[in-house]
C-alpha cells in the first residue's frame, strides 16, 4: 500500500521567501537553529544576571549603573535592594534552567539532529514543531517582560515556593504582575515542551528508515528519546501546578496558602491550603527536570566520545542506554529529597533517601562507561573531546556532593548553604553546559557548514574548566563553613570571615563570564569566515555525517537510506558509516 | 511521468515533504501514536488536579458532603449521556472504516449532540451552584472553602476537554465530508473522545459520589 516508488516522484521545492524559510519555518533544521539561538541569547542574559548578583555579593555598596537604569525602584543608584537581588536570582534560575539547559541540548540539537540521525526528512509533525518553538519564544518574552514592569521580576526563585509565590503583591515587589507573568511564561514553556516531547517520541518510533532498528540508534537519539518520555510526564505535572498557582493568585482559591498567614503585618483571608502540596507537585516535576537537563547531555557525550576515542563505548549501546532508562524511571520517585527540611515527616525523608542513593547507581555506571572507554583509546584531542572530558570531571565532582545531600541528617545542615548551590551548578548546570558546548563544537560544521577555530576553542575550554572549579568548588567549601544561600550581602557576624573567599568567587565568575565571549566571537566569526566544512570532518559514522554540510531541505536529497550497522563502528583510524554495507569492523 | 504514483497521506500536506516521507515498515499510524502519547501526558495533568483535590480533602477536617440527591441524579444523567456518546463515536468510526459516509455523518452528529448535551447539563449545574453562593473561594454551607476550588477546577478542566472535543469533531467531520480527512482521522479523534469519557469515570465518583449526602 505504501509504495517505495513514491521516492521516484519529483521533490517539492523548499519554501521560498524569508518568512516561510527562516521565521515560521516547518523545517526541523531551521527550528533547531532557532532554539539554539534562543538559548544562546538566554544564556548570555542569564550570565549577565549572575554577574550582577556576584558583584553585589562581593561589594554590597558597589553601584551597577545598568541596573539603576533598568529598575530605578529595584536598584536605586545602581545598588540592588535585597528584594531586587532575589529578583535577579529568580530570573537567573528561571532563564538558565528552562530556556538554556532544557532548551538547548534537547530542543536545539535534538530538533536539528534527531530526524537526520533516524533517516527521516523531518519531524513527525512539522507544524506542531514550529508551534513548539514559537510558544517557547512567547514564554521567553513573558519571562523577559518581568524586567520592564514597574515592580520588576518575582522574588520566589525558579522553584516559586508557595505561599510566597501564591499570596500576591502583599508579599513584596515583583509578587504582583511579576509573578503572574512568570507563571504564564512557565505555562507556555510547559505546553511547548509537551508538544516537543510528543514530536520527538513519535519521530523516533515511527520515522526510522529501513534497517534503523532501536539497537542501531545513535546514543544521542536514545538520550533525546528517553528524555522526551521524562519530559512528557514531568511537564504534564508542572503545567497544572502552575495553573493551580495562577488560580490561587487570580482566582482567590487557597490550594497552597494556609490559614492564619500574616504577611507584612496583614492577615490574609485564606485558609486550608498547603505549601507542602506545592513543594510535592513542584518537585515531582522538578527532580525529573534535572534529569531532563542531564539525559540529553549523557546522550551527546555518548555520541561524541566514540568519534574521538576511535573505539566503541565499553558495553556497547546497551549499558549506557539501560542506564539512561533507569535514570529516567527512577527520577520520578526521588523528589522528596528536595524537601528534607520542608516540614515533611522525617520518616518520609528516609523513604526518599533510599531511591536517591539507588539512582546514583545508573548515574555512576553511565559516567564510568565514559571514563573506562578512554582506556586503550586513540584519542583525538579536539575541542568537542576536551569538553567531553570536562563533562566527566564535572559530573563526578558534582555527583559526589550528591552523596552528602542524599542523607537527611547531612542535608539538614547543608540544605540552605552554598554547598547546594555549588552542587547543582556542577551537576545540572555546568555538566550540561559542557555537554552543550561539546555538541556545539561537534555539530557546528553540520549546522552552519563551516569549521570553528580549534585554537580559540581550546583556550575557551581550558579557561572555562579551571574557572568553573574556582567558582563552584569554592562554593562547596563555603557551604561547609555555613555560607547561607539567598542572602544578598555577607553582613551577619559569622559570615564576615567568608568575605575574602566570596570575593575570590566573584572575580573567578567574572573571568569565567568573560571567557564565554571568546566562544561567542569564535561562533559568530566562524559562522561567516570559518573554513568550509567537509561532509564528515570528524570521520564519524552516523547519518548526519552522511549528508552535505549543511544538509539540504529534505536532509538526504531524496536518497533512499538503508542502515547496516550500529553507530559505533570505530577501530582506530578506520570507521564505517551506518549506511555502509561492508562487514562490521567493531561489531557493535 | 511526473504525476505521483500513489498519494500517501502523511500529515505533511503543504509542508513540502509529502512525497519524501516514506512510511516505516515498523510503524503504526503516527497520528494515532501521537494521540496515545498525548493521552498519557494529559492523564498526568488530570492526575495532578485529582491529587491536589485528594490532598485538600484529607487536609481539611471540615470537608462536608454538600451534594443532595438531585445533584447526584443530574450527575448520573451526565454520565449516561457521555457514555452513550462513546458508543455513538464507536459507531462513527466503524461507519467510516466501512466507507459509509451517510452513516458516519449521522453518528458523528449524534456524538457531537451528546457532547453538547453533557456540556449544557454541566453548565446548568454550575450556574445552580453559583446561584447558591458557591465560589472558587467560598463554601456557603460553612465547610472547607477548598470544595468549590476543587470542584470547579477539576470539572472545569474536564468540561474544557469535552467542549474542545466537540469543536474538534466538528472540524474532523467537515474535513471528512470534503475528502480532506479519512477514517484514520476519525479514529484518532475517537481515541481522544473515549479518553475524555474515561476521565469522567474518575471524576464522577471522586467529585460527586464521594461528596453525596449520606441521608
Query: What is the tally of beta strands of chain B?
Result: 0
Uncertain residue ranges of chain B: 1-13
Low-pLDDT sequence parts of chain A: 1-11
CATH topology of chain B: Four Helix Bundle (Hemerythrin (Met), subunit A)
In the CATH hierarchy, what is the superfamily of chain B? Cytochrome c oxidase, subunit III, four-helix bundle
Task: Tell me the domain tally of chain B.
Answer: 1
What name goes with the CATH superfamily of chain A? Answer: Cytochrome c oxidase-like, subunit I domain
Helix content of chain A: 55-70%
Structural class of the secondary elements of chain A?
A: mainly alpha
Largest interface, C-beta within 8 A: A-B, 60 and 50 residues
User: What global shape of chain A is seen?
Assistant: globular
- Kindly state the percentage of residues in helix of chain B: 55-70%
The chain-level mean pLDDT of chain A equals 93
* Oligomer description: heterodimer
- Radius of gyration of chain A, in angstroms, nearest whole number: 24 Å
Give a quick set of tags describing it.
heterodimer; A: 588 residues; mainly alpha; Cytochrome C Oxidase, Chain A; two-stranded antiparallel ribbon; globular; disordered N terminus; B: 215 residues; Four Helix Bundle (Hemerythrin (Met), subunit A); 69% helix; 0% strand; elongated
Detail the topology: elements first, then pairings.
The complex is a heterodimer of chains A (588) and B (215).
Chain A: H1 18-23, H2 28-58, H3 65-70, H4 82-118, H5 126-145, H6 177-206, H7 219-251, E1 262-263, E2 266-267, H8 275-309, H9 316-330, H10 346-372, H11 383-405, H12 408-414, H13 418-448, H14 454-480, H15 499-529, E3 570-571, E4 574-575
Antiparallel strand pairs in A: 1-2, 3-4
Chain B: H1 30-59, H2 69-97, H3 101-131, H4 146-177, H5 183-208
Helix pairs in contact in B: 1-4, 1-5, 2-3, 2-5, 3-4, 4-5
Amino acid at each position: 500500500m505504501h509504495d517505495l516508488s513514491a521516492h521516484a516522484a519529483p521533490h517539492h521545492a523548499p519554501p521560498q521567501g524569508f518568512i516561510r524559510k527562516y521565521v515560521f519555518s516547518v523545517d526541523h533544521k531551521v527550528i533547531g537553529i532557532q532554539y539554539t539561538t534562543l538559548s544562546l541569547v538566554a544564556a548570555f542574559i542569564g550570565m549577565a544576571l549572575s554577574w550582577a548578583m556576584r558583584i553585589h555579593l562581593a561589594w554590597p555598596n558597589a553601584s551597577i549603573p545598568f541596573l539603576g537604569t533598568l529598575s530605578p525602584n529595584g536598584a536605586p543608584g545602581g545598588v540592588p535592594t535585597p528584594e531586587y537581588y532575589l529578583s535577579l536570582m529568580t530570573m537567573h534560575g528561571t532563564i538558565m534552567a528552562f530556556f538554556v539547559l532544557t532548551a538547548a541540548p534537547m530542543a536545539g540539537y535534538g530538533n536539528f539532529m534527531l530526524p537526520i540521525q533516524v533517516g527521516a526528512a523531518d519531524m513527525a509533525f512539522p507544524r506542531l514543531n514550529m508551534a513548539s518553538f514559537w510558544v517557547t519564544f512567547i514564554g521567553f518574552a513573558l519571562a523577559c517582560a518581568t524586567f520592564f514592569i514597574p515592580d520588576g521580576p518575582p522574588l520566589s526563585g525558579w522553584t516559586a515556593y508557595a505561599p510566597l509565590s501564591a499570596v500576591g503583591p502583599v508579599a513584596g515587589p515583583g509578587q504582583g504582575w511579576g509573578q503572574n507573568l512568570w507563571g504564564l511564561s512557565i505555562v507556555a514553556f510547559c505546553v511547548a515542551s509537551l508538544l516537543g516531547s510528543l514530536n520527538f517520541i513519535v519521530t523516533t518510533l515511527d520515522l526510522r528508515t529501513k534497517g534503523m532498528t532501536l539497537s542501531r540508534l545513535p546514543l544521542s537519539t536514545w538520550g533525546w528519546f528517553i528524555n522526551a518520555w521524562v519530559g512528557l510526564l514531568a511537564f504534564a505535572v508542572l503545567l497544572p501546578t502552575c495553573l493551580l498557582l495562577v488560580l490561587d493568585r487570580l482566582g482567590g482559591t487557597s490550594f497552597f496558602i494556609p490559614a492564619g498567614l500574616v504577611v507584612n503585618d496583614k492577615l490574609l483571608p485564606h485558609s486550608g491550603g498547603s505549601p507542602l502540596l506545592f513543594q510535592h507537585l513542584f518537585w515531582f516535576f522538578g527532580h525529573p527536570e534535572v534529569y531532563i537537563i542531564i539525559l540529553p547531555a549523557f546522550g551527546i557525550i555518548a555520541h561524541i566520545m566514540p568519534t574521538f576515542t576511535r573505539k566503541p563505548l565499553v558495553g556497547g549501546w546497551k549499558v549506557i542506554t539501560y542506564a539512561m532508562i533507569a535514570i529516567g524511571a527512577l527520577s520520578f520517585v526521588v523528589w522528596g529529597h528536595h524537601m528534607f527540611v520542608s516540614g515533611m515527616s522525617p520518616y518520609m525523608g528516609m523513604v526518599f533517601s533510599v531511591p536517591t542513593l539507588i539512582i546514583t547507581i545508573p548515574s555512576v555506571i553511565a559516567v564510568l562507561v565514559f571514563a573506562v572507554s578512554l582506556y586503550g583509546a586513540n584519542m583525538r584531542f579536539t575541542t568537542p573531546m576536551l569538553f567531553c572530558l570536562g563533562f566527566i570531571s564535572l559530573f563526578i565532582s558534582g555527583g559526589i556532593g550528591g552523596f552528602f545531600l542524599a542523607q537527611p541528617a547531612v542535608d539538614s545542615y547543608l540544605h540552605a548553604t552554598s554547598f547546594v548551590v555549588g552542587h547543582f551548578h556542577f551537576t545540572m548546570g555546568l555538566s550540561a553546559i559542557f555537554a552543550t558546548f561539546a555538541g556545539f563544537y561537534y555539530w557546528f560544521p553540520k549546522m552552519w557548514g563551516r569549521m570553528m577555530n580549534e585554537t580559540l576553542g581550546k583556550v575557551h575550554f581550558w579557561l572555562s574548566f579551571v574557572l568553573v572549579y574556582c567558582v563552584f568548588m569554592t562554593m562547596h567549601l563555603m557551604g561547609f563553613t555555613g555560607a547561607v544561600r539567598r542572602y544578598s550581602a555577607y553582613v551577619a557576624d559569622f559570615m564576615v570571615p567568608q568575605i575574602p573567599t566570596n570575593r575570590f568567587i566573584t572575580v573567578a565568575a567574572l573571568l569565567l563570564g568573560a571567557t564565554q565571549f571568546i566562544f561567542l566571537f569564535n561562533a559568530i566569526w566562524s559562522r561567516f569566515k570559518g573554513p568550509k566544512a567537509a561532509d564528515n570532518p570528524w570521520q564519524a559514522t552516523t547519518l548526519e555525517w552522511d549528508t552535505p554540510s549543511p544538509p539540504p531541505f529534505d536532509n538526504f536529497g531524496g536518497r533512499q537510506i538503508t542502515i547496516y550497522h550500529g553507530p559505533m563502528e570505530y577501530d582506530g583510524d578506520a570507521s564505517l558509516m551506518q549506511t555502509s554495507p561492508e562487514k562490521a569492523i567493531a561489531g557493535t | 511521468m511526473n504525476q505521483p504514483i500513489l498519494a500517501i497521506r502523511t500529515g505533511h500536506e503543504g509542508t513540502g515533504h509529502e512525497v519524501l516521507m516514506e512510511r516505516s515498515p515498523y510503524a503504526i499510524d503516527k497520528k494515532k501514536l501521537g494521540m496515545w502519547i498525548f493521552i498519557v501526558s494529559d492523564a498526568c495533568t488530570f492526575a495532578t488536579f485529582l491529587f491536589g483535590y485528594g490532598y485538600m480533602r484529607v487536609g481539611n477536617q471540615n470537608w462536608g458532603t454538600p451534594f443532595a440527591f438531585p445533584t447526584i441524579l443530574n450527575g448520573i444523567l451526565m454520565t449516561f449521556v457521555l457514555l452513550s456518546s462513546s458508543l455513538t463515536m464507536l459507531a462513527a468510526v466503524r461507519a467510516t472504516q466501512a466507507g459509509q459516509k451517510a452513516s458516519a455523518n449521522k453518528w458523528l452528529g449524534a456524538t457531537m449532540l451528546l457532547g453538547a448535551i453533557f456540556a449544557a447539563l454541566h453548565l446548568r449545574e454550575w450556574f445552580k451552584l453559583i446561584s447558591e453562593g458557591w465560589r472558587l473561594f467560598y463554601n456557603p454551607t460553612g465547610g472547607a472553602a477548598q470544595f468549590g476550588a476543587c470542584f470547579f477546577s477539576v470539572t472545569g478542566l474536564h468540561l474544557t476537554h469535552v467542549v474542545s472535543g466537540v469543536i474538534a469533531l466538528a472540524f474532523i467531520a467537515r474535513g471528512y465530508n470534503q475528502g480532506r480527512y479519512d477514517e484514520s482521522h476519525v479514529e484518532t479523534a475517537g481515541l481522544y473522545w473515549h479518553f475524555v469519557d474515561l476521565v469522567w469515570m474518575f471524576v464522577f465518583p471522586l467529585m460527586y459520589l464521594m461528596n453525596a449526602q449520606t441521608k
